[in-house]
């Protein structure tokens, strides 16, 4: 859809009331539901320009750097042409029980360079899924843990990369990831307690928290001031229960079972999460994300955008709203 009519529709979708809950928080999307980085053969690839056009049409403010996107000024110009912002670049760094692998810092630096060259905003860093952790997906409490040496090495790596990021004008936000060495509530607590709050922020992924048996509301309650970025994804109860009972094992099989559900249809208490963020006057990105979907990708993205919009508008009519 192109031309004045398209521009008018996009503008109306993005217009938010100044007294709306979290009105200062832009709404973006992670484009993995179209081009899946974990399961690249899941569906036909979508060209970057078509993807940016669709994301703008659906009324989002920004995007994550996605699979198949151009780089540098080409990406900067493409994003701007569609009236979007490059909200984040996401990177997973390798980590085992004794801490990040030797290549971890360089992997993070390369992604930071891509973010900076394209005029992006936040560097989101996660740990990769270690096989010994992935086998315990959904049962993080029984999974192998980082050693004390591993924690020290992880802290040093994140703070070094965060310092370099801030030097280029980008916040580093750590992303909790199911099947990695930082997914459970106690692990998130330890990471927040061991890293410099002036360097390392938190990108809370509420869906990965639920899979890791962590309570997103408890995390917001304890670490809300560290949260600078948010991934909003819901979790389907049936695959989650299968993981808990050991009938389903591993992250990729869970993705194929569509463990991440359309926003508002799973186990996530979305109104409570938004209310807790509103009480903190949160102004960071709200990134809608659904890794895999039974619905067509554009339909899943549209559902997420509309549900989030409805929840934000619904919240301001409730007694005691923190808008």
Architecture overview:
By secondary structure, the protein is of the alpha/beta class. The protein has one domain (21-314): Divalent-metal-dependent TIM barrel enzymes (TIM Barrel), CATH 3.20.20. The protein has 13 helices and twelve strands. It has helices at 4-14, 48-57, 72-81, 104-117, 131-134, 148-167, 185-194, 206-211, 216-223, 237-244, 251-256, 270-279, 297-315, and strands spanning 27-29, 62-64, 85-93, 95-96, 99-100, 122-127, 171-175, 200-205, 227-232, 234-235, 260-261, 285-288. The strands form three sheets. An eight-stranded parallel beta barrel has the order 1-2-3-6-7-8-9-12, surrounded by six helices. β2 (62-64), α3 (72-81) and β3 form a beta-alpha-beta unit. α4 (104-117) packs parallel to α6 (148-167), α9 (216-223) runs parallel beside α12 (270-279) and α12 crosses α13 (297-315). The radius of gyration is 19 Å and the shape is globular.
Determine Rg (CA atoms, Å).
Answer: 19 Å
Uncertain runs: 1-12, 319-323
CATH topology: TIM Barrel
Which strand-content bin applies to the residues?
15-25%
Secondary-structure-derived class:
alpha/beta
What is the name of the CATH class?
A: Alpha Beta
Give helix % range: 40-55%
Give me the CATH superfamily: Divalent-metal-dependent TIM barrel enzymes
**Per the principal axes of the C-alpha atoms, what is the gross shape?**
globular
Task: Write down how many β-strands occur, each being a DSSP E stretch of 2 or more residues.
Answer: 12
User: How many independent structural domains?
Assistant: 1
By CATH, the architecture is named: Alpha-Beta Barrel
User: Which sequence of strands runs across the widest sheet?
Assistant: 1-2-3-6-7-8-9-12
Count of helices?
Answer: 13
Please describe the biggest sheet, giving its number of strands, its sense, and whether it closes into a barrel.
Answer: 8 strands, parallel, barrel
Mean of pLDDT:
92
Distance between the termini: 34 Å
Order of helices and strands: HEHEHEEEHEHHEHEHHEEHHEHEH
């Amino acid at each position: 859809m192109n031309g004045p009519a398209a521009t008018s529709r996009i503008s109306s979708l993005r217009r938010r009331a100044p007294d709306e809950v979290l009105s200062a928080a832009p709404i973006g999307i992670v484009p993995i539901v179209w081009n899946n980085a974990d399961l690249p053969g899941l569906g036909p690839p979508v060209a970057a320009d078509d993807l940016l056009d669709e994301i703008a049409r659906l009324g989002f403010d920004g995007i994550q750097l996605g699979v198949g996107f151009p780089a540098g000024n080409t990406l900067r110009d493409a994003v701007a042409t569609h009236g979007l912002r490059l909200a984040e670049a996401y990177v997973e760094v390798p980590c085992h029980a004794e801490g990040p692998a030797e290549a971890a810092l360089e992997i993070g630096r390369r992604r930071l360079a891509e973010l900076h060259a394209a005029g992006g905003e936040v560097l989101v860093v996660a740990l990769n899924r270690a096989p010994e952790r992935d086998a315990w997906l959904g049962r993080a409490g029984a999974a192998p843990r980082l050693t004390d040496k591993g924690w020290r090495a992880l802290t040093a790596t994140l703070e070094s990369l965060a310092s370099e990021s801030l030097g280029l004008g980008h916040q580093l936000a750590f992303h909790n990831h199911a099947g990695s060495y930082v997914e459970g509530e106690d692990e998130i607590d330890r990471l927040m307690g061991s890293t410099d709050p002036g360097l390392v922020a938190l990108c809370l992924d509420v869906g990965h928290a639920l899979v890791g048996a962590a309570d997103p509301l408890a995390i917001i309650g304890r670490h809300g001031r560290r949260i600078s970025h948010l991934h909003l994804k819901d979790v389907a109860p049936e695959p989650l229960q299968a993981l808990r009972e050991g009938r389903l094992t591993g992250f990729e099989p869970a993705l194929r079972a569509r463990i991440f559900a359309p926003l508002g249809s799973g186990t996530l208490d979305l109104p409570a999460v938004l209310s807790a963020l509103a009480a903190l006057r949160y102004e960071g990105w709200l990134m809608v994300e659904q890794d895999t979907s039974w619905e067509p990708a554009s339909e899943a993205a549209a559902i997420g955008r509309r549900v989030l919009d409805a929840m934000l508008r619904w919240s301001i009519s409730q007694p005691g709203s923190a808008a």
